[in-house]
Design brief:
By secondary structure, this protein is α/β, with parallel strands linked by helices. The chain has two domains: 4-218 and 225-230, Phosphoenolpyruvate-binding domains (TIM Barrel), CATH 3.20.20.60; 231-262, no CATH class. It has eleven helices and ten strands. The chain has helices at 4-9, 22-30, 42-45, 57-70, 89-101, 117-125, 141-144, 154-170, 182-191, 212-216, 232-249; strands spanning 14-18, 35-38, 75-79, 107-111, 130-135, 174-178, 196-199, 207-210, 279-280, 286-287. The strands form two sheets. The chain has an eight-stranded parallel beta barrel, surrounded by six helices. Strands 9-10 form a two-stranded antiparallel ribbon. Helix 6 links the parallel strand 4 (107-111) and strand 5 (130-135). Helix 5 (89-101) crosses helix 6, helix 6 packs parallel to helix 8 and helix 8 packs parallel to helix 9. The longest helix has 18 residues, at 232-249. It starts with a helix and ends in a 10-residue tail after the last strand.
Length: 297
């Protein structure tokens, strides 16, 4: 099983994908992906929301547990959803611990900023591995004014670099860096001893992460920095259309899909089942079965 230490020490590129359910996680794990991120991107990718903001701790806990049950080798990283951290330090630590203790995550990921340095330090100190996340942080979409590229001017780039160093010093074992110019991601990678995992950040990070829907071609839209490696949406639709046609034309179910040989001829008998006839009551009248003589039934 992949550990946070092995992720730090490996020399070849790290691969990470999101997953939000057991069947998908099993496939990702079988394919040899190093880490599975149970991202709050489930809000957009699996739950029908427009943003990640409505995702709750209960959502992440349930789906992380499902993923963890399906994974044998990959590192399972649970995303901490909006307002599950950063409001109160004790509550932040408790929520992170819940994801390890109750959902069997191996680590948590925090969308990071100045407010998460101390939280990272505290979580790490009590045994909760933390993956930091800088650059485009979707939980801040309202403050950022959209899902725009970050670190595009000198001051913003220097702030991201400074925060990356601060989170490494606080104990983060890895850093996701999202939607920033490639030269900035390269500079962050060179400055840190911990691995960087890029998404829309160029080729110089220590690894890459994408949302599973984008990789397999399940969604209707993908960000410009992703790449579709399949057409699962098309295959899924074709399979559903074939099912609909088969039911409509009677070719499904075919004989191999059901048991027609069972000897259940008595089910079509006209005989009245034992005990269904009217029975005499103590006063000599005939009692009919429940409801048989009730015109309201």
């Amino acid at each position: 099983m992949t550990t946070t230490r092995e992720l730090r020490d490996r020399e070849d590129s790290i691969t990470m994908l999101t997953a939000y359910d057991a069947p998908t996680a099993a496939v990702v794990d079988e394919a040899g992906i190093d880490a599975v991120l149970v991202g709050d991107s489930m809000g957009n990718a699996a739950m029908g929301y427009d943003t990640t903001l409505p995702v709750t701790m209960a959502d992440v806990t349930s789906r992380t547990a499902a993923v963890a049950r399906a994974v044998d080798d990959a590192l399972v990283v649970a995303d901490m959803p909006f307002l599950s951290f950063g409001v109160d330090e004790a509550e932040s630590v408790r929520n992170a611990g819940t994801l390890l203790k109750e959902a069997d995550a191996d680590a948590v990921k925090l969308e990071s900023g100045p407010h998460t340095v101390e939280a990272t330090r505290r979580m790490t100190a009590i045994g909760i591995p933390v993956m930091a996340h800088l650059g485009l942080t979707p939980q801040h979409v309202n403050r950022l004014g959209g899902y725009t590229q970050q670190g595009t001017d000198q001051d913003a780039a220097e702030e991201i670099l400074e925060l990356a160093r601060a989170h490494e010093a606080a104990g983060a074992f890895a850093l996701v860096i999202e939607h920033v110019p490639a030269p900035l991601a390269a500079a962050v990678t060179d400055a840190l001893a911990i691995p960087t995992i890029g998404i829309g950040a160029g080729p110089d990070c220590d690894g890459q992460v994408l949302v599973i829907n984008d990789v397999v071609g399940l969604g209707e839209w993908s960000p410009p920095f992703s790449r579709q490696f399949g057409d699962v949406r098309g295959e899924l639709r074709r399979a559903v259309e074939k099912y609909k046609t088969a039911v409509a034309d009677g070719s499904f179910p075919a004989e191999e899909h059901y048991d027609a040989d069972a000897d259940l001829a008595d089910l079509t008998s006209d005989e009245t089942p034992d005990g269904a006839e009217g029975q005499e009551t103590p006063d000599g009248t005939e009692e009919t079965p429940d409801g048989a003589g009730d015109p309201t039934n």
